[in-house]
Amino acid sequence: MHPTIAPLRDEGAGGGVAPPVDDRTWTPSSWRARPAWQQPTWPDGDALAATSGELSALPPLVFAGEARALRSQLAAVGRGEAFLLQGGDCAETFAAFGADAIRDKLKVLLQMAVALTYGAQLPVVKVGRIAGQFAKPRSGDTETRDGVELPVYRGDAVNALEFSEEARTPDPHRLVQVYHQAAATLNLLRAFTRGGFADLERVQQWNQQFVAESPQGRRYEQLAEEITRALAFLKACGVDVENDPTFHTVDFWTSHEALLLEYEEALTRRDSLTGQWYDCSAHMLWIGERTRQLDGAHVEFLSGVGNPIGVKLGPKSTVDEVEELAARLNPEGELGRLTLISRMGAQHAGDRLPELVRAVRDRGLPVVWSCDPMHGNTFTSDNGFKTRHFEDVLTETRTFFAVHAEEGTVPGGIHVELTGEDVTECLGGAQEIVDGQLGTRYESACDPRLNNRQALEMAFQVAELLRT
Ligand code: PEP
Ligand code: MN
User: Fold this and answer.
1) Is residue 289 within 6 Å of ligand 1 at its C-beta?
2) For ligand 1, what atom is nearest to the CA of residue 90?
């Protein structure tokens, strides 16, 4: 797959050739002078430019002060004073948009966070893959079925999943729909997290229901019971659990992969307070494993915005790359700015991760380490479903914790693909989903997600790991 070099706009360097890294000024459009991997072939450049113009005139979705607040919470994660939980769909879709789906995703993340808070005895920083996670990197540009070759599905931000010429033709108007869906999603999330839905006692009741009602939950009875007793203890001590807002509201942050840079550029605004640029499409943005080229457009773009950012690191990542990425993306060396998200695969994590963790530690690079135990563990089942095994997900997570324990570094958090629904996309777990059941409820538009119970099970397992 070849990168595309987008046409230059006014502020870019001349000639369409990437300028030397140190010899250029960042602007929201300076990425356009660099090769951008994993981009759609938009059929109509004018329509794309018009869409960018339209998005530029729309209000920001988040504001700079929020991104800074998340950065400082992530700094606490880096110091080992908080734990990061990042999760949500692989790809949000227009079809699955609705209040119930948003509620259920938030609900499962809040439930996980309570278990993790107790296990880690630390605050949990909650970041959704939500309200903007609509664009996907793919392993090929096209897909062929029965001799018909069409552009690959790149997420609802670009085209539609259905296999027809019309559906698969990239359409920039979709970016505006992404914006509006993200705005409505964020609005509901803000209401839920401030309006009482996130009440700690309620979330704990849901966890107790999970424990009581499902055979797979029963394993975690003791931990759930301890949490209930801890709450009762607080009340007995006179803590005003009913009225103290700490127990009723939560901070919940949004994030997505910053893949489509026209969209990200259009939502990048200058903060009136600091004069700094922020990508106001989400609180946190990350760079995917396939677009983290040092001289590429994605690294260039995110190097200049003030948001906290993440970079995925696959098993082929080298020490040099990690050092260069840290130098480019976090030149000031501020903790909380950069999260390294390792996604090595259960088989490779033990071999690959220690070297990187050690190098980062020995050079004193201030980063948050997080573990994405999903993307290195994807395979196709015998009956043709893209899936992951719950055991592999847990194995990679355990390895991540073991490596950090060994190296004396901080295992900052986890990054997972999950849904609040009872889907059958990942194998195993205490529900013991097998190949033959994958078709029962396989709804992901892209990668397989942990279902509600698998996600809770994962949280309880990690909570147990954190306590030991
Ligand atoms: C993703 O997070 O959905 C993804 C594509 O991840 P990665 O870049 O790590 O493959
Ligand atoms: Mn994915």
Assistant:
1) yes
2) 3
